[in-house]
Amino acid sequence: MxxxxxxxxxxxxxxxxxxxxxxxxNLNAYYGRQHALKDVxxxxxxxxxxxIMGPSGCGKTTLLKTFNRFxxxxxDVKLTGEVLVDGENIYAPDxxxxxxxxxxxxxxxxxxxxxxxxxxxxxxxxxxxxxxSDRVEYxxxxxxxxxxxxxxxxxxxxxxxxxxxxxxxxxxxxxxxxGLAVEPEIIxxxxxxxxxxPISSQNIESRLIELKKxxxxxIVTHTLRQAKRLADHIIYMYMGEVMEAGPAHxxxxxxxxxRTRQYLEGLF
Amino acid sequence: MKFQKKHFERRHIVELSIKTIMxxxxxxxxxxxxxxxxxxxxxxxxxxxxxMVSQIPQGGYYMGKAGGILNAIIGSAYLATGGTFLAMLLxxxxxxxxxxxxxxxxxxxxxxxxxxxxxxxxxxxxxxxxFALMILLGMRASLLAGIIVLAxxxxxxxxxxxxxxxxxxxxxxxxxxxxxxxxxxxxxVNVITRQMxxxxxxxxxxxxxxxxxxxxxxxxxxxxTDRIPTSLMNPTASLPLAVFxxxxxxxxEVRERGYAAALILTIIVLLVSFGSxxxxxxxxxxxxx
Lengths: 268, 289
Hints:
The complex is a heterodimer of chains A (about 270) and B (about 290).
Chain A lengths: L1 H15 L3 E12 L2 E12 L3 E5 L6 H7 L10 E9 L2 E2 L7 H7 E4 L10 H11 L6 H14 L3 H4 L12 H14 L4 E5 L7 H14 L4 E5 L3 H7 L2 E6 L2 E7 H6 L4 H7 L4
Parallel strand pairs in A: 3-8, 3-9, 6-7, 7-8
Antiparallel strand pairs in A: 1-2, 1-4, 4-5, 9-10
Chain B lengths: L9 H35 L5 H5 L15 H33 L3 H15 L2 H15 L5 H25 L3 H9 L4 H29 L3 H6 L17 H9 L4 H32 L6
Helix pairs in contact in B: 1-11, 3-6, 3-8, 3-10, 4-6, 5-6, 6-8, 7-8, 8-11, 10-11
């Protein structure tokens, strides 16, 4: 009951505020001397799937990694500007980075299960944030999130097997369940299907579409077809700059920039 | 005939000769190991007896009379276990700190460099340092002093071995935990130690092997006695010194017992290293390959 009312609070709060979940202001990022993001100013809408596209090396993954403060895990990097999540700058000096990452979850390019059992992989995040009070609660939640990720039926008889005993596609769904278990509001996906076979990819894609009613989803992809299948909102990047951003339909049918048009036609 | 090998072509000759050199080198190393084992077994085994491992030296033991080296066996077990435990208390935090907080930074390089220098210092120097320290503190040769000096000998080996293991940890794994909102400490405890546990245990036992076999560092600090220590302040015998003293004896039967002591030491080291392999394999279940 308590989590239900909390969820309700969250929803009403979202509705009360405007529809922007992440706002990026004058963002510049550097790897050493390389200027990877140039004056990025964008808004990412709530409860939609935003797809960041662009040729390799255009800065799309870099942009994504500034949203959960993963960019700073690289060596010799510098960042200026602001990233606001629900109006709060996550780069402000007194921000607790672990809280940011709890709210902004990440689904990595390759599935990376933790060195523990299937059960513990899902329970891990809830445990470090002390989200539940007893074993029964944990068990219930683990089941709940495995069901959301569409994995429960396949694993409920072997919850204490190592996570590595799962197939790659199952591992990625396990990572999704694990990420959802810490109750994020935003899910980032860094080419989350690029290591998977077509059927597993499709499975993840349909999960993401189901999930957007409760979460804001931002994914990076380099496959145009995937972008067309998933995107409600598009950000097109080129050489570290955002060339185009807007509702998917507008961008696909009537791109404003020559570069975007060429990219969409598959010219480079 | 298109595919027939031309045996006298230059590149085939080069390959064959290099391969032969490599095999020869391998043979020399394996042969040396075999020779060492054969020497201590053939000379030590005849005098190895139940009496030898179950009794302390009796009167006249060092002239070939009855008794055994239980004092040295127990002493070495105490010294190496204590030293390894003490070294571990420092090594694990240092290695994790190096990984989680210092990373590839300049400070990390300094720490690694100083550990490498410490590793290279001969153990007799540690012994002399420990001895000087004992005089300063007014301590006498004792189990405690031996344990402390052995911990110093083992610390750089253990820490660097752990560090090398932990550094091989895939970054994605660490990121996976960070992405859920873990602190670096939680990553270290929940992910790095779990994933790298087999390697960490290997590092600990590597250091244990060095500790139990080291004679020079315990020579001044733990001393030698025919009794089994009952307190940390008692002097303590050790197997390497038991080998050393007995091999220097003019009595042939005592020299034989020296080889037997060497055999016992070798068996302990072998048991520990097989045990560690077995343990690593068992702890491997959840690690990500």
